[in-house]
Predict the structure of diphosphomevalonate decarboxylase.
Amino acid sequence: MTYAAVRAHTNIALIKYWGKRDEEFFLPMNSSLSLTLEKLYTDTFVQFDEELTEDLFILNGKKQSEKETGKITRFLDLFRAQAGVSYRARVASINHVPTAAGLASSASAFAALAGAANIASGLNVDLRTLSTYARQGSGSATRSIYGGFVEWNKGTSSEDSFAIPIDEADWDIGMVIIAVNRSEKKVSSREGMKQTVETSPYYPAWVATAEDDLSVIKDAIKERNFEKMGEMAEHSAMKMHASMLAAKPPILYFEPASITAIQAVQKLREQGISCYVTMDAGPNVKVLCRLSQAGLIKEKLKDFFKEEQLLITGPGKGIRELTED
Ligand code: DP6
């Protein structure tokens, strides 16, 4: 097989990954845990072809620059080296991100690319090992190999810093994504986490508490205790942003509408609707909720946001090969 097409869904961390201890191999300072999402995914086709003289990368129908293609080349080299393949590749990706969300995701991108390169190169490593490859494209991609709730164990080396599926999330879990701003983020997560590690006096506290936070949320998931899980997810997100705010210069991803969203969620809780916020390296707010209450929450959020800014999604599955039929 010299070609394959694979779908991978994006994921949102409930215990955040923030900071690397090794930038070359993308080894994280702390373990993290996420929920894979159904509605946001990437489809990627990879074909190794002896006729090609260089790698080609087409994203959403558009040929990408040398710089963008270079990132793909470096990533495919991991597979070429292990599989003994020297051919260049044709890579075509489509991001299925509903316009409302405006969330292009490196997690689904590198998980789909890893999945397709694994098959197309004939390497065919198992999913756990594949997650260590995806990690070297983007840390959060490690977790997108699997569906439902997924843990990324920080490990001790490149070989054992992999993802493991924790729970299928088949128990009334959902998210309402609030697209506050669709434009490209000013500080990438890669730069943002580096600056936080190097300059924030609060960063050691982030690292010191992350493993305990992870064990609390794993217990909550095991007990199917939604409130315990949501409280911890919200705490992890706010603590990550607090560590960034204390960096020099400070890193601020919040926009006025992000605060509006957070306060709207607090108000919903006062009304007895169980829901919690999480935020990543950008202004968009994700509301963790019961899928059965997501419609009601969306209606209430329409007091502050437009219909097209709000997207409901349930849990998504792990990577899968796309066949022609
Ligand atoms: C805030 O995975 O985008 O979303 O490893 O440098 O590619 P790189 O960073 P990336 O960082 C994700 C950070 C986060 C939290 C998370 O997804 O755990």
User: Anything to note?
Assistant: The mean pLDDT is 95. The CA atoms of residues 148 and 169 lie 5 Å apart. The first strand starts at residue 3 and ends at 15. The chain is about 35% helix and 25% strand.
